[in-house]
Amino acid sequence: MNYIIEKSPRVSLPIKGSDQRYPVARIYCVGRNYAEHSREMGDDPDRDPPFFFCKDASCVVPVFFDEENSIIYPSMTSQLEYEVELVVALGKGGSNLTMEQARDAVLGYAVGLDMTRRDLQSLAKKKGRPWEIGKSFSQSAPISPIFLKQDLPDGVVSHSQIALKVNGEVKQLSHIANLTWSVEEVICKLSEAFELRPGDLIMTGTPENVGSVIAGDVMEASVEGLGNVSIKVQAPF
Question: The domain 13-234 is classified under which CATH number: 3.40.50.300, 3.90.850.10, 1.20.1530.20, 3.10.20.30?
Fold first, then answer.
């Protein structure tokens, strides 16, 4: 293939315990999929269902267990916020999937952060503009290696605790069971609007108590059964 400019390499994530890698296609994010987070953002979870937005695959930063990971504090913001999330990696796709098909489509899980330039997102909301400037920026999706579903005990994810610490202090703490829409329901709903593909990642939503970080802060994101990753926020160069 003769490209007029250099082709960008496809972003990929490692598979835990394997030399294989997972090629990332698209990143779907679920908005306000924990009731308490929905309330803290000004919505009524009993009235407003979760909704979807996207990050570009180039936003992914692979982060690793038992290593010093870092991201750069991004430009144009003074309110960089963390949102810890369970990430679902699809091994199969399709449209209008049933619950059984949705369950079968899951290849594995990872720990992720949906980093958000909240001030820019809030301004976009007020003006009725898209959210990309607040959500889809470089290094806004730190994600751990993927654990294959087949290698995990039954129910370990659906009953797991999800948490985030900043400088050792617990900021977010909940359970995956508190998702308003389950993983399978999210996949079903997404497949009504999009034809899902192998390689798609789904960030399933964040619990309450999102908050800001500054350069020098260290975030620890965890999902019980998947481990935890430590990420330092570095000052911009």
Answer: 3.90.850.10
